[in-house]
Amino acid sequence: QNLKFLPNLMFLRQICGRFCPVRLTVCRRLAMERCVVRTVPDDDKMTISYQLGKGQRNLYRNKTETLGGALSRIVFNANKHLNKGKRKKKAKLEGAGAESESNPITAQLVFNQEKVEEDVPNSEAWQEGAILEIGEYRFLVTVNPPMVKSIVLPTSIMAGFPIFPRLDLDFASRQDSSYLWHREDQTATTTQPTTASGDSEGKSVKNDQQKTVNWVEASQDLIYTPVNSDIGSRLKFTCVPRQDGKEGVAMEMMTSCQVEAGPGLCPFENRHLYTQKRAQEGCFRVVSYNILADVYAKTELSLTVLYPYCPPYALELDYRRQLLLKELVGYNADLLVLQETGKSLFNDALVPALDLSGMDGVFTGKGQQSEGEAMFYCRDKFRLLRQDDIVVGEYLSSDPSCADLHTWLSHSPAVLNKVTSRSTVLQVVLLESVEDPSRRLCVANTHLYWHPRAPHVRLVQMATCLRFLENVVNSNSTQDSSVSLVLCGDLNSHPTSGLYELMVQRAIPASHQDWFPKEPQTTDDGKLVLQEGIDLTHPFSLSSACGVPDYTNYVGGFQGTLDYIMIDTCQLAVNQVVPMPTHEEVTANTALPSIVFPSDHIAIIADVEWQTT
């Protein structure tokens, strides 16, 4: 704080300065405001912030600049703002025939009770515990303190569904920080009369009722699941940022809405009955799920054509996020393989929420798009060895293993351009079993081209993916450690398609009908027509872990199986398949998505076990 505390400090010095100088120093520091210095290695500049007068002062200075340059600017600002009121007072006094003058302000930086020389670079001068003196004001310098830059709370909150605040922390960790949730206590809310001052006689001209809100602690966890007694109340979230023993200033935020009743029992909660416990030893649970990217859920096409039966509020990410978090956490998965994952959803919600469930995640973007593929693995089941991702079209064009495919496609330039211009990616991680390090798992994740009249495009994409996976598996297998393959994704292909035949039969002939669709897609380059087909093979013994469900995608104009968990049956076997929702559950609100289904796809889930050799 400022000079008004100095007389008391001087009194303390007179009484006990010679006996307790350390205690006096502590008192002084407690009385000081803070000067916050923020500096990061990759930035040539640093920020110096402090509260002086009625305003916040922020200086953006070069690290190589001398301390004298920064202090000169500090003095300039101080004279400008602090002497402003003095100059006005002086003018009044001079008008009355009195005299007054403004004292020039000086500034210095003190460290360990010694003045820091002004020729020292800023990067070395501003140290933790230094004291900035600006005239009669004192500021304790703290470097890179933990800080909450922002808190964003959802605009839709329902009882029974977890809510997760989007935190932007600086020099703080989620693990070290502390959290507090309060709910508004409606029963204890009171009103107090307030009077606004009127004329000089103090007559009241206004009498309002000011609402006093009482808050009741609800949780000390980062994620909070509102209960029924919270319905009708607002919530308040507080974060105290911490890291490496440092503590920053707490920030709190109130919800803009009240807690509402949820939509009732969601079908995925019935599926949770099969996943209450983690997969048994020697097994791992795999979930593959297209979670419907926010960028696709809120388009005019989605609202009016694709999902006109779904209430618009149920397509909002704030609403769907609550359902997704509850659904995903409840599956107790060892591997979560997700498609159409928004990058912000991944960073702001999935990573911190699933971290609390013991999972780490990786994300692979698709060019300039805001969505991509995500994969999470359980830390006590798997250890990440490496991640290898490819853009399928680029790999086809550049890798020698695909030279024959590229040469063949060059005779059909429209199809070649369609394949190579797509942003389709193959996300691949190599994992090692924590239980048995000799067991390694290659987990692949992709989302193939969507157009129903382009099965030949998807065949080329899958052939390219299988070539890459063959390289990954072979290059990471040893005599003592074999690599098993799990291939997941939204393949946009029916079980009757040539792509499915290629995966499970290991081959597809050049004469297969999917090379020559009857009504091929037409693009700016013309019709996607191949001059001829090509024989394709691969070395894996793949089988669909979940069999062939009636559908994994159910919308108003289409129902079919598009999503798969393919496992290499030479080394892996199915232990359990979690049943799909019933048809009645799926169609209770016409189709997907709905108020109880957050996506237009359904998660497929299987427990897979290692084969004994």
Cα end-to-end separation: 72 Å
Total beta-strand segments: 35
Strand arrangement within the widest β-sheet reads: 3-2-1-7-6-4-5
Identify the overall geometry: globular
Major beta-sheet overview: 7 strands, mixed
- Estimate the strand proportion: 25-35%
Q: Low-confidence parts lasting 5 or more residues at pLDDT below 50?
A: 1-30, 96-100, 195-206
Q: Structural class of the helices, strands and pairings?
A: alpha+beta
How many helix segments? 16
Q: What's the pLDDT, averaged over the residues?
A: 90
> What is the C-alpha radius of gyration, as a whole number of Å?
32 Å
The share of residues in helices is: 25-40%
Features:
alpha+beta; 613 residues; globular; disordered N terminus; 26% helix; seven-stranded mixed β-sheet; six-stranded mixed β-sheet
Describe the structure.
The chain is an alpha+beta fold. It is 26% helix and 32% strand. The strands form ten sheets. The chain has a seven-stranded mixed sheet with strand order 3-2-1-7-6-4-5. β2 (45-52) and β3 (55-62) form a beta hairpin. α1 (6-16) runs antiparallel to α2 (21-30). The protein starts with 5 loop residues before the first helix and ends with a strand.
